[in-house]
Every structure is written in C-alpha cells, then in structure tokens.
Amino acid sequence: MFRHFRNYLPRSQVWLEQRDHFHPNRIAEKVGEFSPTGLGAHCCSRATRLDSKKCGSSQSQNPTGEQSKVTANNRIPLIDRCYLSFLDDEDAAAFIRKVSHYYLPATLQRLAGYGQRLSRRGAVLALGFLGDYNANPVLGRALHDSDRAVRVLAENAIREVWCRDGTEHQRQQLAILIRLNDGFQFEESLELASLLIQQAPRFAEAWNQRAIAHYRLGQFEAAANDCQQTIELNPYHFGSIVGMAHCYLEMGEGFAALDCFRRSVEVNPSLEAVRGQIEFLERALDGI
User: Fold this and answer.
1) Mean pLDDT over residues 97-102, rounded?
2) 21, 150, 200, 281: which is deepest, by most CB within 10 A?
3) How many CA atoms lie within 13 A of 218 on its CB side?
4) What is the mean predicted confidence (pLDDT) over 84-99?
5) In order of start, what are the domains of the chain with their CATH numbers?
6) Shortest CA distance to 111 belongs to which of 71, 82, 75?
C-alpha cells in the first residue's frame, strides 16, 4: 500500500554519502566561519572576533604597549586562542600541534561539554582531528549544543571518530571497505565487511558499511538488520538510523520509516533534509 510513495520521496545523503576528510576548507563550507573571506564570514567569524575583542579590549585602550597586550591575551584560554588562530590561517597542522602539546583528549572532552562557547568550538574541532572512539558520547551530546558552530563541528567530528574504533589493522580494513563502497564494488565490500565483523563484532562502522553494501545490492532486509546492529552498538549513529528508514521505505513499511526518521533527528537535530522527509511522510500517511 505504501510502496509507491518511495518514488516521490527524495533520498537523504546523510547515510549513503561517505565521510569527508576532516579538512578545514570542507568544514568552512558548512560552518561559513573558518575563512575570513568565506561565505558567511560576516556572521560567525565576525562574532568570534567580537568575542576576542571583548576578552582583550585593554589592548586598544591601555597605553602601556606590548606588555598590556600580552597580559590581555593571556586572559583568553589557550584553546580559544588556538581556535581563533585557526579561523585566521586555517593551518590545521599548527592547530593540531599546539593543542596536542597542551591538552589531553580527556581534557578536550571535558571542555567540549562544559567550556565557554569558543572553548567548546575549539575542543570539538580538536576532537575531530585528535579524538578516538572514546569521544563518541561527548560529540553525540555536542550535536545538541546551543551554539550552531559547535553542532556543525560536532557532526563532522563524530563521523571521523566512528572510524577510529578497533585496532590499527581493523581501521585500515575499514578504510578499504569504505573505498570499495565508494567505488560501487559492493560484492567485494560485503565479503570484506563480513570478515571484519567476524574479527571485530563490536566495530559499529563495519556493520554500517556492510549495511550500505546490502542496500546498494537491493538486499533491504539484510541492510535494515545491519543498521539495527550498528545502532545497538553506537546509539549516536544518526546516519545508520536514517539508513534503516530508507530500508523500510524500500520494503513498503512507511510507518516504520517515519519512526526511524523521527529517531534520527532526536539524535541529531540539525538534519534539516530529514525533517523535510518527515513532513512528506506525515502528509502521505495521514489517514492510512
């Protein structure tokens, strides 16, 4: 009864697109604040600079010169200064080098949840570069942060840490698996994913990548099962929740798909494209 609706519902790329490399220019396109000349810089970037001026306002008012500038600058937390420098020069290597020298991952996780606004931005950005899978719950909570920039940075960062579970060899296997799916080599992807799952049954992203391969091969029930396993292992995996919704759409289960779409925006409220799908399905299912 519902199957024909899937022909009119646009597919979300939240699940099927693979993660972008955590590159400052790619992040800048989404946040619009990392490059002073970039699109949207007059909003976010200007706001961060105003914050910086408030913290160091004595630099322009105190006539004592360089000493007062150093004193005012020292009042700004180091993570904030690193973040503001990154906004200006987009030098990821310098940002990583300085942050990793002064901060432990546990400290960055604490700042990401409880720091001031600029500190939260800097800490979440740093976790995207430096964090491992242990940062997953912190970044999952950051998806609900009151600051939009933190939310966008968290969405980028959490996709990265999903791939940093397991051993080094298992992460290398996952990277090959992602490339196979990107290259539409789904049969090979299924075989490698199954081997990786046997080696590391709690590696959530391995299950997710196998789900993508199943889906692309038209094996929707198997894909939905792998999505469910992904979510059980990683409840913050909004991409796999969206993926399960698409599986249900293909199987003609409209109400189950709607429930999954709703669950995904509960995990990540910034999924605007998914909100559009929810509205469409609610209208389509009204009265059924």
Assistant:
1) 97
2) 150
3) 0
4) 96
5) 3-17+165-285 (1.25.40.10), 24-161 (no CATH)
6) 82
